[in-house]
Design brief:
Layout lengths: L8 H8 L4 E5 L2 E4 H17 L7 E5 L4 H12 L3 E4 L6 H11 L3 E4 L12 E4 L8 E2 H6 L15 E7 L7 E6 H14 L7 E4 L6 H14 L2 E4 L5 H11 L3 E4 L1 H9 L13 E4 L6 H8 L4 E7 L6 E5 L13 E2 L4 E5 L12 E6 L6 E2 L3 H7 E2 L2 E10 L5 E5 L5 E3 L2 E3 L1 H8 L5 E11 L3 E10 L7 H8 L11 E4 L13 H8 L1
Parallel strand pairs: 1-11, 3-4, 3-5, 5-6, 6-7, 10-11, 10-12, 12-13, 13-14, 26-27
Antiparallel strand pairs: 1-2, 8-9, 9-19, 14-15, 15-16, 17-18, 18-21, 20-21, 21-22, 23-24, 25-26
Helix pairs in contact: 1-2, 2-3, 6-7, 8-9
Length: 498
């Protein structure tokens, strides 16, 4: 093969384990041979529509085999895959499509989004918008092999991440970035060829896709794709399909452990679970250890594909509260303002180097340059290192709010809220929440005394922002604390309003 990228994985797996089940989803079971044929048909169909190397193909839909088929088919053509967050509001999705310049949008039956760049809209299932039909497109296309020349350094995927300066930025990941991250997962999490992985975290997020789904397929295991998360159903699936591995964020694992069926659930097949997206409470870890399930956790970000630090199940109790040590082929340091490693217990910024670190922010060289410093990605997260090299994250990157594993940019919410005529000034901070770990709280300076209404302000944001980005509460203030240069003093706001 001339294709050494992710798009060749379907063909490479089909020649090794054609009869093994690759995917189980709402459509049933799909073998590696059948998956490869569908990928070939889709790749040929997309090429007939004019898709060429470097073109962007967007996907908007739930966890489903069509997500994987689109990813592999795009990769096989040398095109760039753009997974879109289904929880975003229409204006946010339109921004991602326009920013990426996506020319093809493959979407669920009710998820078509208008964009001037999209030339072909392809609907999965029934659709009344005039889009092309996905199944019809595959049925009318050839299943001949695709073998474009694709190198590991070629661009593969644009994943949008909530920035701290407004609208999401697209992290451009290469085939090599995602491949090396998958190798890190296979080494550190020790996935096996008989793995049965339950994918309840959305694939449009980097951890759900790159820490869970793709490494399992690379190894030749089976992925169970769930369109939505339900704790009772997750427990049922674990027993019914003899699930061996799953990933989730803390709120998911808490919900599963609180389920009425938790005590009677058959977890005997579950070798380990892996958690990320937010700090993990000790009680959550204990609940799984008490059931004999190894509980591993990690730290990462979209820009690093995403694995940076990993705390294995063997260490999860002894080193509870830390994020672990760097993944096998990844290096991480905690440094001071002059990029010098800090001493044990001293605070510094986490910087990351390795073959899994993104190439750039798509179309944003001004944002890329200060972030990638001589091969080291500056995370903005503050951490300490203990005498064994275990890293503990102690402060949030650039004031980002993490709610139920979702990143929320305060600047993006503030921009939207500031468009309301009753808002003279505003700031958004994260406050603790028993369910989501953290939720947004808006501090608003009214334009006119007595005219601002909390419910009206929150209602104003619905349809403009994804639901998880909308603050759960509003408080009013006479003014916001600012520095001499006009920067909002968020620490002061947190001290007063948390």
């Amino acid at each position: 093969m001339r294709d050494f990228g992710i798009g060749s994985w379907a063909a490479r797996r089909a020649r090794k384990t054609p009869g093994k089940t690759a995917v189980i989803d709402s459509e049933g079971h799909c073998t590696y041979a059948a998956l490869n044929e569908r990928v070939r048909r889709l790749a040929n169909a997309l090429r007939d529509l004019g898709v060429r190397r470097g073109d962007r193909i967007a996907y908007l839909g739930p966890n489903h085999r069509t997500f994987i088929e689109t990813l592999f088919a795009g990769g096989a053509l040398g095109a760039i895959f753009v997974p879109l967050n289904t929880r975003l509001a229409a204006p946010e999705l339109e921004h991602c499509l326009a920013d990426s310049g996506s020319t093809v949008l493959i979407h669920g039956p009710t998820a078509a989004i208008a964009s001037g760049t999209v030339r072909h809209s392809i609907a999965i299932g029934s659709d009344g918008t005039g889009s092309l039909g996905y199944d019809e497109l595959l049925a009318g296309s050839a299943a001949t092999p695709i073998d474009e020349t694709v190198a590991l350094d070629d661009p593969f995927m644009i994943m949008y991440t909530s920035g701290t300066t407004g609208r999401p930025k697209g992290a451009l990941l290469t085939h090599g970035n995602v491949t090396w991250n998958a190798v890190n997962v296979l080494v550190d999490i020790d996935l096996a060829s008989d793995e049965v992985t339950l994918c309840v975290a959305p694939l449009f997020h980097t951890a759900g896709l790159n820490m869970t789904c793709l490494p399992t397929l690379l190894k030749g295991g089976t992925v169970i794709l769930e369109e939505t998360f339900d704790p009772d159903r997750a427990l049922k699936l674990i027993g019914a399909h003899r699930v061996t591995y799953m990933f989730g964020v803390p709120v998911m694992f808490d919900a599963i452990a609180r389920s009425e069926t938790w005590g009677a659930a058959d977890l005997s097949s579950l070798r380990q679970v892996s958690c990320g997206g937010a700090p993990v409470p000790a009680t959550t870890i204990a609940a799984y250890l008490d059931r004999g399930v190894a509980f591993s956790q990690g730290y990462g970000m979209t820009e690093t594909s995403p694995g940076v630090l990993f705390l294995s199940g063997d260490d999860c109790a002894r080193k509870a509260g830390t994020a672990g040590v760097p993944h096998f082929f990844t290096d991480a340091r905690v440094v001071d303002g002059r990029s010098r490693p800090v001493g044990t217990g001293r605070r510094g910024e986490v910087v990351v180097s390795g073959p899994n670190v993104m190439r750039e922010y798509w179309g944003r060289s001004d944002d890329t340059a200060p972030t990638l410093d001589e091969g080291w990605f500056r995370t903005g997260d503050i951490a300490t290192v203990d005498d064994e090299g275990y890293v503990s994250i102690v402060d949030r990157a650039k004031d980002m709010i993490v709610s139920g594993g979702e990143n929320v940019s305060p600047a993006e919410v503030e921009t939207a809220l500031g468009e309301h005529p009753d808002v003279a000034d505003c700031a958004v901070i994260g406050v603790p929440d028993d369910t989501w770990g953290e939720v947004g709280r808006a501090i608003v300076v009214p334009a006119r005394a007595g005219h601002a209404d909390a419910a009206a302000l929150l209602g104003f944001l619905r349809g403009r922002l994804a639901g998880y980005k909308i603050p759960k509460s509003v408080v009013f203030a006479v003014e916001l604390p600012r520095s001499a240069t006009g920067k909002i003093l968020r620490r002061a706001l947190r001290e007063e309003y948390r």
